[in-house]
Specification:
Number of helices: 1
Order of helices and strands: EEEEHEEEEEEE
Largest sheet: 5 strands, antiparallel
Strand content: 35-45%
Shape: globular
Radius of gyration: 14 Å
Number of domains: 1
Helix content: under 10%
Distance between the termini: 24 Å
Structural class: mainly beta
Length: about 120
């Protein structure tokens, strides 16, 4: 699954042995085990949960780039302590141990919960 992040908007920052670079449409993090990119919606959710360059926040750092979820509808990015799912209706953060921790669905009445397929439903 390809995704065009656009042009770099920063020279990049190195902290805690990792490199971070912002792009028009997302963020790339380089760790010792690889490069991980996250589109803007995933990046914004991660930042909203306390993630930033030197601070991994609630979910920790990414361990995969964006890929299709098992349900075939959502896309997800895995982190040290959970996942962020993304679809046309919003983004949903799921803690690896306790389930949904937040959502930013476009429908105000949506409550994020884990479905039997392991992806959030609204």
């Amino acid at each position: 699954m390809g995704f065009d992040l656009g042009q770099p908007t920063s020279a990049g920052t190195t902290s805690e042995g990792m490199r971070y670079q912002e792009f028009d449409a997302g963020l790339v993090i380089e760790r010792s085990d690889g490069h991980y990119w996250m589109p803007q919606a995933i990046r914004d959710k991660w930042l909203g949960l306390g993630g930033s360059g030197p601070d991994p926040g609630t979910l920790g750092y990414p361990i995969t780039s964006l890929k299709p979820a098992k349900d075939g509808v959502h896309r997800r990015e895995l982190f040290d302590n959970g996942s962020i799912y993304w679809d046309d209706h919003g983004t949903y953060a799921v803690d690896g141990a306790s389930g949904p921790i937040s959502s930013s669905a476009s429908t105000a009445s949506t409550t994020s919960r884990a479905s039997t397929s392991g992806s959030p439903t609204g």
